Amino acid sequence: MSAMMFIIKFLIVTICLIQICVHSTLNDEIFNSVISTNQLPFEMPSFDQVLNSNKFVLAHYFKPFPLSIDNKNPSQDYYSVNYLQPSGEGNKFIKQGGFLRVRPLPIFAPQNASNIYWKLTNMEKEVRMAIARGINGWSYDILSVKDIGNGTCFYKGTLCELSIMLQAVKNVDSQSRFKVVLMPDMSSSLSLSDIVTIVKYLYNDTAIYRNGSKPVIAPFYAEGVSPIQWQSLLQNLTSDGFPILLLPTFLTISSKYINVEMYANISIGMGVWATVGVPTQGSSSIAYASTVRNAKSNNSLLFWLGMMPQTYKPKDCILYDSYNSLAYRNAWMSTLQTNADIVHVATWNDFSESGQLQPITDLQNTTGNGFYDLTAYYAHWWRTGLQPTIIRDVVYYFYRKEATNAYAPNMGCNFTMGISQSVSNQIEVLTFTTDQSILTIIIENSNYTFMINSSGINSFFIPLQAGKPNIQLWRNGINIITVEGNHEIFATNVGLPNGVLDLTYWSGSTASFITPSKSVNTFTSSNRNVGSSIVAISKCSTHVNMFIPLFFVFIAILLIF
């Protein structure tokens, strides 16, 4: 064997091992950075404390948008090739500029093609991400009876994501404290007989949300089925030995549209699935709470409070303006004012309506994790009834890449407002401070200064304008925080480079700052003051150590052949 040939083979083996290390490190580093709690403004409860709570913050899980649809590298997966491209899916949404504007953070080390458990692995990641911000359950949108599977759930291509999710929950927490609320989607083709099949199949699963010993179903668009039909379903299941409880969620709660009293008589609670992400959703929730609590004379109904961080439907060219983070913060304050029994955030991952909590990115490596991080603080506030003490100075920002009237020559539709409201083309900086401070926002040639007179939460708005905002927090002449917005704002007369409109509120913070690189294939992340680089290096070393024995086997093979 020639020396040159040996060197070539040696280099090939070495490069392969390096790729294994780098891909594993990138994948782990991104998600460990995302779920880190070291830079949140308060002392985040432990996983056990979140899971032991009997006050549930649920996030709506929508199965069409998992972390990965097809287990491919991010530059080649279905999100990048179809959903985010204006020409994707055979130009199906070309007039709208594409089906989606956002996607989940990419999986950089897809499971080996022979590994049938890649969906399970990814769902476990999502459960951990949720718990890390105070979410202790899903409401799982059931679109089909096939969601429960037929015993072959972990194989690619089967339609049994609900059963996979239930297993993922139990893998993350063997005590099954993270609960899954069964939410039959009555706007789909799902029938009442399908619900019977699903309930019987999953009845004894320990991950199912229960009230007492009985499973609870919380149908979406419950008004699509009459109270008499729901009552018949409950009676039939009880007769068959599968008693359940009903907690209907409606698109609205009003005697104008539904018979509130009849639904109340057969239910343990009621609520609106979610109020669209506009600043008035807090006051709407207060009105809904009053209706629910007055539906029975003894006020015994549980009140389910639904909310959305923002609502923008690019596929429909419809916008409900949340005014940056204002709508979400107002909704959370209403959980305290109404003493809500269950909080429901819609959604965890419905990217088609832009209301997702999950950290997001896009083809330009824009990132958004502000709503995700903000959830941790308000969830703990509602859960304990006490405002968490701010122990770290943290800055959040929320803004669009362009104004709502930006130049978009490649759009074939004009967006319309979902309700009558003015739009907010502004940059918001939301501060959590431990003491008096001075906030400075610099963008291009504009400089804005605000006095913060005491510790607490403060929101500041400046006009949306081209450039990247540089945000600084000062105290006693010392610069405490400097952070630059992670996405550029394009001038109104220029618009986005791809010529389409993106009205998503992108966001970030010093709490979990995700830094995009030049390509989605080399996406990196960092968490300020956490020492993620050291963690990454040590992890890479661990991976290399794991492959040292394998490396020597390769060398032996090379010497033989």
UniProtKB/TrEMBL annotation:
Keywords: Membrane, Signal, Transmembrane, Transmembrane helix
UniProt xrefs under InterPro entries: Glyco_hydro_71
Membrane-spanning intervals of the chain: 542-560
Superkingdom of source: Eukaryota
Signal peptide per UniProt: 1-27
A molecular-function term among this protein's GO annotations: glucan endo-1,3-alpha-glucosidase activity
Pfam families per the UniProt record, alphabetical: Glyco_hydro_71
Protein's recorded name: Predicted protein
UniProt organism field: Naegleria gruberi
Lineage: Eukaryota, Discoba, Heterolobosea, Tetramitia, Eutetramitia
